[in-house]
# Entry
Amino acid sequence: MNAPPALSVVVPVYNEGENVVPTLRGIVERTHMRPLEVLVVHDFDEDSTVPVVKRLQSELPELRLHRNIIGRGVLNAIKSGLGVAAAPYVLVTMGDGSDDPNDIDSMYELARSGADVVAGSRYVRGGKQLGGPLLKRTMSRTAGLSLHWLGGLPVHDATSNFRLYSKRLLDEVTIESTGGFELGIELTVKAHLMGLRVAEVPTTWRDRTAGQSRFKLWKWLPRYLYWYRRGLAGRFVR
Ligand SMILES: Nc1nc2c(ncn2[C@@H]2O[C@H](COP(=O)(O)OP(=O)(O)O)[C@@H](O)[C@H]2O)c(=O)[nH]1
Ligand SMILES: [Mg+2]
# Structure
């Protein structure tokens, strides 16, 4: 039997045939912890990412294709990946090249030294956000900074999903997110309210160069506000 991985990486994909090769190469080549497993999570067999990953597997044996068995959509894909991840630490990162894999090693170090959530943080010194719709960027930045300064959340970025979680945290929480990308803020707020350590590493997020974003700001906003309020209220209930 193979040794269990030190780190599992969950990469949700929706027709990322064009973007996924440099993204996956970056994850494998820029990180140093081994054994490493990279779970590429797709919703349906016809997804354009699937044949591309199959070809790449001969070169990068760390890659595993995982068909999301929970139901369509990025939240279900991430949950499905978290469910099969075998390592004590699980990183979620996007398949469209928007997260910087050079930051994964330092995120892993912080997790190894006891943080249950390590956020890739765009809104701290050294972090950046390049491209993307202005309104989405402004709201995300405002939420992150106000949760930090008013809500006492130890990180400056609440909404990025470039995040590393301990298996310990994942085993303990019941995920209540209902869709989209709200999982990052849910797990961060909950870990903080549980008294667990939440840390951050500055990172640069770049908008995709090929394909279309599937982010639905207005549809998902009420759920973001729900977690935002729980995060703010946390200051008074802890
Ligand atoms: N499995 C799966 N992945 C998705 C879905 N929607 C988006 N993704 C992936 O999630 C990541 C980020 O999605 P994107 O639409 O670019 O969101 P944005 O970066 O916030 O604009 C990419 O890797 C997408 O391929 C989906 O419905 N199912
Ligand atoms: Mg994107």
